[in-house]
Give the backbone structure.
Amino acid sequence: MVEGRCRIGHAAWRRTTTRGDHTRGRLGHTRGTMMGGKIDQMKGRIKEAVGVLTDDDSLKNEGKLDQVVGEVKETAERVAEKVKETVAKAAEKVKDA
């Protein structure tokens, strides 16, 4: 590996799927964030369940917090994607005008 350069080729880095899909590619930011939100939600559900089983209020609350954080991450990513789409459409209209 060359200092400061990634071994992964450009095609692998920016591999894209259909435009309407919210996944960008193997290493794209969109998938990571959306999955991060889902993972936080699942992790939160597990923590909350364990907290209920062990009667640990602190763990239950931590689980609830993780679920909310996951939902916020997903919502933020959806909003960001919508803004990007709107900006791209506006840029196309200006370009065509």
Observations:
- Confidence is low (pLDDT under 50) at residues 5-29.
- Residues 28-96 form one domain.
- The chain has one domain: 28-96.
